[in-house]
Amino acid sequence: MAKYVYMFEEGNAKMRELLGGKGANLCEMTGLGLPVPRGFVVTTEACTRYYQDGEKIAGDIEKEIFEQLANLEKKTGKTLGDKGAPLLVSVRSGSRASMPGMMDTVLNLGLNDEVVAGLVVLTENERFAFDSYRRFITMFSDVVMEISKAHFDKAFDAVKEENGAHLDTDLTADNLKEVVKRFKAIYREHKSADFPQDPREQLFEAVKAVFRSWNNNRAITYRRLNDIPSDWGTAVNIQEMVYGNMGDDSGTGVAFTRDPSTGENKLYGEFLMNAQGEDVVAGIRTPQSLEQLNSVNPQVYDEFVGYARKLEDHYKDMQDMEFTIEKGKLFMLQTRNGKRTAQAALKIAVDFVREGVVSEEDAILMVDPRQLDALLHPNFEPKALAAAKPVAKGLPASPGAASGKIYFEAKDAVDAHKGGEELVILVREETSPEDIEGMSVAQGILTSRGGMTSHAAVVARGMGTCCVAGCSEVTIDEASKTLTDKNGKKYAEGDYISLDGSTGNVYDGRIATVDAELTGDFEVFISWTDKVRQLRVRTNADTPHDAETAIKFGAEGIGLCRTEHMFFEEDRIAAMREMIVSKTEEQRRRALEKILPMQRKDFEGIFVAMDGKPVTIRLLDPPLHEFLPQADGDIASIAKELNMENDELRSVIRSLHEINPMLGNRGCRLAIIFPEIPEVQTRAIIEAAVNVGKKGVKVLPEIMIPLIGDIKEFVYVKNTVKETAAKVLKELGAELDYLVGTMIEIPRACLTADEIASEAEFFSFGTNDLTQMAYGLSRDDAGKILDTYFDKNIYEFDPTARIDTRGVGKLMEMAVKLGREARADIHLGICGEHGGDPSSVEFCHYAGLDYVSCSPFRVPIARLAAAQAAIKDKSGVKVIHG
Fold this sequence. Notes:
Elements: E1 5-7, H1 16-31, E2 39-42, H2 44-52, H3 59-76, E3 89-95, E4 105-109, H4 113-123, H5 126-144, H6 149-162, H7 173-191, H8 199-213, H9 217-225, E5 234-240, E6 251-256, E7 268-273, H10 277-282, E8 288-289, H11 293-296, H12 298-315, E9 319-326, E10 329-337, H13 342-354, H14 360-365, E11 379-380, H15 382-387, E12 390-393, E13 395-398, E14 401-407, H16 410-418, E15 424-428, H17 436-441, E16 444-447, H18 455-463, E17 466-469, E18 475-477, E19 482-484, E20 490-492, E21 496-500, E22 505-508, E23 513-514, H19 521-532, E24 536-540, H20 544-552, E25 558-562, H21 563-567, H22 573-581, H23 585-610, E26 614-618, H24 632-641, H25 646-656, H26 668-673, H27 676-693, E27 700-705, H28 711-732, E28 739-744, H29 747-751, H30 753-757, E29 762-765, H31 767-775, H32 782-791, H33 808-822, E30 827-830, H34 838-847, E31 851-854, H35 859-874
Helix pairs in contact: 4-5, 5-7, 6-7, 13-19, 19-35, 20-23, 22-23, 23-27, 24-25, 27-28, 34-35
């Protein structure tokens, strides 16, 4: 019979999948002898069964929960609902993957009118008892009964104002009794019933609420952003309460064993005396730095330092810990591997190797590849930054630089991003888990409340997003959507500001940026990945500048050079249009002859930049209508340039119109209908290769024919390429090794890959189009469809963002198998944007590809992901979702 509930003494850190990260670590800390409040864990399997049973907790699971509750009551000598010796508990979520703030928590559960009276007698602290009760009513009503917390916040603020209380701690016991009275009235108004008084009912409903929270909107969004499968479920941790709000000798805090922003090896954190945990992370009061605890209670501080060192040594990673001090006694409430910035992640990994704590391979696994993105983008230009004057200063919560238009609600930020606005700054008094989507699209986050461990700070660091938190020098009015800086200047929605997450400075307007410089820890760390990875990493680059950038980031060749991008340049678009409107082959060839020297020069620059590394050049792919104007004004202007009548050009544009251009006259079809196009492109490639070869540069061109669905298509275009290349080499009296292959982007090509491989020397999977065709879903129109599918839990992730391993992945695996059976030495790669997605790179490793290719700035991400895949493969761990 399955076991669904474990006491802390029964579990350990290796049971993470069953007990969730929080539960497994609570069990582990208990086993290590740390002062952990006692409790038990309801497993992730119970959550999965809850959903399988129609969102109901089965009778056998309910029975186990209350049996273990009885064990907890026996261990503590307290009883749930007993006013003489009351057991009060916290009910917290805990997935196997850390999801900070995404799911729900209820504290002080077990309080009712009788128990709170007993707690007053027991503690001789009336204020503490009613402070705990008002907190419980708020949390239970919000989390379990889904009554908006805003109703309770409004009533609480009203009582503070009536009594001249600036801080929560200024309220007296009588004031808090009035708060409880008003809170119960709010509950009654919304539920037409009194606040629940049965503690066992409270507990059971709270467990169900935590299970429900696994599928709340913010949790679903977080899972989608972080590749967490929906079938994992969450555990529920039920733990004896300890109190940081019992007076000035009690407190609560959050700490990290190393600085999560810089990685510096020093204890870092914040605490509040006479407070509960949510007070620290919610920014309700401004916390004190952890060092100040040494002055408040040196004994507790020394004890905590010892536990922190013990936990980091034990887990061999930087730890994020929560603690409570109850009447001078320290309790450890949680530990987990801490979220950190990209800079900190690299420093911690490198330092751990230097300190002899972990091996290089272990260190490689400590860094999330997606975090490197934060290191690879521009910072503020030093002179521009020096000339700018800060208009406010807050806490440097997450490093980086961001300029953008300000938005005051997460929804508005998301809408602006969807509307094409790339530079978005989310401005909030304080963020909450509901803001997760707005935070994910923002380049920077500014809050007027909260500290270095506030929700905004923790989530921004995890995302690699610039954040300035607790900026009390600005006034944020979310209702009127305005921000006022310390000088009195007012900013409205859509105005530009700039944030420096490394200093906490806020600036008016936009500040110029410069490219990131990668040295030090990055160079040391990334060099380790090259020792272990099997996949090579190429780049998608269309210009010498892109190629040089990619080389700087470690690219080992070009996996996709899109020649059509070259045609859009101002000095050659006219010749391209002349070719398109030509009525005869002779006219088309004359136009193409104008383009030939420009293409040849482009290829020469790319070959020189790559200096002997392979370069895969895709022949012209998009439909011709993309090069022609659509607006009347543009048509008139272009017609004049081409010496045509307006109506004549319109007629050409109409003739090129297709109902579904993605499936129309493009790719190899263009090359078959207009063979002069691949002839000129091949000539440009071969002449460029020979020219730079004469200068001592080794060249390895790979000519890629796009959109092949049938072997005969490939053979036809390949013959054109080979005949043209032979002719050019004969003219130049030169020899050149080159390959001719194809882009696998049509499902039929995967199914007939053995036939195609008999002629093609390489395959490069174009997963952008392969995904579109496999799903029958245009990525240009996917947004509105996917949003609905996410809302209705039909899709868990965006298939255009990472490889769908169960569908598209099967097509790829089939093509790999068939291709290698037909041609053992065939080169296999991927050149869609999936080539820079970590989970997709991992799939490519297991699928047996030779290389991945991605945009220049994603090359380090792919290098790290490829190394992690190799290490996991060697250790027998295979974790690919989707």
